[in-house]
């Protein structure tokens, strides 16, 4: 499973892109998106998903 970003809640701050250890987050169109084939949910690297932990808007980076 991968995470996704709720586009309507995304503030386009970019914090998640720089924190993603697998490089799965990119800016496309008007918001950030998670490329599901690259997302590892930070397993084996962190105890929590980095995108969700740095996002300033609660419940914007969520499991897909």
Automatic annotation (TrEMBL):
Its cofactor is [4Fe-4S] cluster. The keyword Transcription does not apply. The keyword rRNA processing does not apply. GO terms for molecular function: 4 iron, 4 sulfur cluster binding; metal ion binding. Keywords: 4Fe-4S, Electron transport, Iron, Iron-sulfur, Metal-binding, Transport. Residues 1-30 form the 4Fe-4S ferredoxin-type domain. InterPro entries: 4Fe4S_Fe-S-bd (IPR017896), 4Fe4S_Fe_S_CS (IPR017900). This is 4Fe-4S protein.
